[in-house]
Amino acid sequence: MATIIDARGKLCPQPVIETKKAIQEQGTPVITIVDDEIARQNVEKMAQQMGLYAESSEIEGGFRVLIQPISTDVLSAVMADAGEAIGQALQMMEPTPFPPEVDRLPTVVVIPSNCMGSGDDALGAALMKGFIYALTQLDQAPETILLYNSGAKLAVHGADTVQDLKVLEENGTEVLVCGTCLNHYGLTEHLAVGSVTNMYAIADILMCAGKVIRP
Known about the structure:
There is one protein chain. This protein has eight helices and nine strands. By secondary structure, it is α/β, with parallel strands linked by helices. The strands form two sheets. The chain has a five-stranded parallel β-sheet with strand order 8-7-6-5-9. Strands 1-2-4-3 form a four-stranded mixed β-sheet, covered by helices on one side. Helix 5 (121-137) runs parallel beside helix 6 (162-170).
C-alpha cells in the first residue's frame, strides 16, 4: 500500500523533505500531492536522484506524484542497450584519489544576512527560513554555522529560525553569532541560540574549513 503525503499549501522545501522522509522510513510506493508546478518538479527530481521512478498526473487543484522503484524490465532493457558502451567507459576511467585530510575538514555554513538573495526582503526571509529548516533535514549537518551582520538576527528571541537552529545545535552543529553584530543591532541581550564569537575566531574557522557554503 502506498504512503500518501499531502503537501498542498506547504512551502519549499517541505514537500521534498516530507516525501524523502516517507521513502526512507516507509519505503515505496509513495504518493505525494502538491498544488504547484515547482513543487512537482522538485519532488520528481529528488526521487530520480534517489534512483527511483517518478510519474506525475494532474488532478484538481494540483498534481499527484507517484514514486516507486524502477522496474527490473526497464533496467534490464537499458543495461542491455548500454552494456557495451558502459563497459568501455569503465575501462577508460582512472580513479582520482581524494586527499583523506581534506575529507576530514569541517563544512561551514556562512550566513551574512537574514535574507537569502536580493530583490524582495519578504521573499528573501522566507527563503532563508526554508534553507535553515532544510539543513535540519540533511543526512549530514554542517559542523559550524556562522551568523554575522544581519544574519545575527536569525538567532535572537522572536526570530522564526530559532527553533531550527536549536535543532541543529542539539544535533552537534556549532552555531556562532558575531558579537559586534549583535551589539550594533542592540540585540546582545536577546540571543536565543548559539554562542557569541568574534572576527578572529570567524577568520580562523573559515581558514580551517574544508568546505564553505554561503546561501
